[in-house]
Amino acid sequence: MMPQSNTLRLMLLNRTGTLHRTLTLLRRLRYNIVSLHVAPSEVPDCSEMVVVTDTNISPVTVLRLERLIDVLDVRFGPDTPLNATAAGAPARNGTTPDASSHFRAQADGVHCNEAA
Q: Is 65 helix (H, G, I), strand (E, B) or coil?
């Protein structure tokens, strides 16, 4: 069972429309966003987004966010570290832990590669 929290941390591909699709999903699920922060991550071509709502976020919402193609990782809580490597960005040694998540992150020819 996932812990209840009103804070989400997301790792997103830095592409046109990603922020809009992510926030539209939350709006459709009737979440009132109290705070929103988006900034470049340490992984090139990716951004970190922190969303705070006035109600607890359900595990079903997390599953729906994870289904968005440009969302690489979703975590509960403000201090939970994001894992771009497990979400499909190549690890420092150039390997990828899971081929299916690697394919998902490379959809439409977009890659989140770490600088050499």
A: helix
